[in-house]
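Q: Given only this backbone (368 positions), what sequence would you predict?
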């Protein structure tokens, strides 16, 4: 039987799933609530396991000329003095390259991977789930029935809510500032300066630009009215490259991060992927990698059980849950470590930081 498949959301997870399903011989419909003209700002860091999954999706070649390769992660204290360094190239040797690039470039690669076939400005408004089919109502009033609905609609997923798989995402208490900076000081490594319940991360992202990712644990603080002034105020006294980067910084976007933790990821013919299923704080930069891996595994399981979608969805969840749980647990651990007062944390990281932080990726280096 030719499965009628709908992918809801054309973000990182939705486009990756659409690609993997096409490689498996399916022709999914892909809908996206936003207009085609929406271009994601900011940069993104993709560790080696993201590259491995992109290779499995046949998208490594178009990615190769983009962004900058990251070979080392350098951790410094707030004054810019060394804590430890991680040999990223060694950590992911034999798995894939680690890369920082523009989100818009990544989106373009993923979009090309589905032949550009996305119905934009078409949101899913409602969903009725039966045993082996789902009836979907779109924002334009259209209605259609599918044998499989893939909810790739992000951490505030409508599909999750409408299928009864889970409620709203839970805020982590972190506030994140992102900026792409041109004309900053030369920077060859991914570099993090750890402050008091805060960090300032900068990395080269190609085109002589730097991608900055700055976060603070501030559950009760409102978003600052002037984020750039706030960053200059809070991080201006940091050492290393930070003052020069802040001088060159022009625009800043602000986001709050959330977690999604669910008992189950599928109901009948409806399944969740990416942030809709397992969002975490982006501390380990594993969100895209987990989305790509979801895509590879979902298509793999559908190939194995083409006649039994329910069995394929259960097998997908069984394979993916331990790895995504590992990312969640390690992310929480990393954030807890970061939030230890610097007088205790920094000497401990000088002694054992490399061992602790490299351990966070140990399981993820393993094949899917
Ligand atoms: C501040 C920040 C920094 C990050 N940094 C990194 C990083 O460096 N590396 C990394 O790997 N990850 C990072 N992440 C995580 C990563 O961005 C996410 O894990 C990833 O984008 C998840 O993709 P997704 O497709 O599941 O969700 P989304 O990117 O949220 O995409 C969901 C899509 O669905 C659409 N949609 C929503 N509702 C509907 C509907 N009802 N109908 C139709 N369409 C709908 C949305 O418009 C959107 O396009 C970061 C996240 C944040 C918040």
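A: Predicted residues:
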């Amino acid at each position: 039987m030719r499965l009628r498949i709908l992918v809801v959301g054309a973000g990182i997870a939705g486009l990756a799933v659409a690609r993997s399903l096409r490689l498996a011989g399916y022709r999914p419909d892909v809908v996206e609530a936003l207009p085609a003209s929406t271009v994601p700002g900011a940069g993104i860091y993709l560790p080696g396991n993201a590259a491995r999954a992109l290779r499995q999706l046949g998208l490594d070649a178009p990615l190769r000329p983009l962004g900058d390769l990251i070979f080392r992660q350098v951790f410094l204290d707030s004054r810019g003095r060394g804590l430890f360094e991680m040999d990223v190239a060694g950590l992911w040797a034999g798995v894939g390259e680690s890369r920082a690039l523009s989100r818009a470039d990544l989106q373009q690669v993923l979009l090309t991977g589905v032949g550009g076939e996305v119905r934009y400005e078409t949101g899913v408004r409602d969903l009725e789930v039966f045993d082996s089919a789902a009836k979907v109502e779109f924002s334009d009033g259209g209605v259609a029935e599918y044998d499989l609905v893939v909810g790739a609609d992000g951490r505030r997923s409508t599909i999750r809510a409408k299928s009864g798989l889970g409620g709203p995402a839970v805020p982590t208490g972190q506030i994140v500032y992102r900026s792409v900076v041109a004309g900053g000081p030369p920077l060859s490594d991914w570099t993090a300066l750890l402050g008091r319940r805060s960090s300032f991360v900068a990395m080269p992202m190609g085109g002589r630009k730097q991608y900055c990712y700055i976060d603070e644990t501030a559950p009760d603080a409102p978003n600052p009215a002037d984020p750039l002034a706030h960053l200059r105020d809070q991080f201006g006294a940091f050492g290393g490259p930070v003052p020069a980067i802040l001088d060159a910084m022009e625009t800043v976007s602000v986001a709050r991060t959330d977690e999604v933790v669910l008992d189950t990821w599928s109901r009948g013919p409806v399944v969740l992927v990416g942030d809709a299923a397992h969002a975490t704080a982006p501390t380990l930069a594993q969100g895209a990698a987990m989305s790509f891996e979801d895509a590879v595994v979902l298509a793999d399981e559908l190939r194995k059980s083409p006649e039994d979608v329910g069995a394929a969805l259960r097998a997908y969840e069984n394979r993916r849950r331990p790895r995504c749980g590992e990312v969640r647990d390690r992310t929480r651990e990393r954030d807890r470590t970061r939030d230890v007062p610097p007088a205790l944390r920094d000497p401990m990281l000088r002694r054992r930081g490399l061992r602790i932080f490299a351990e966070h990726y140990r399981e993820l280096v393993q094949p899917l």
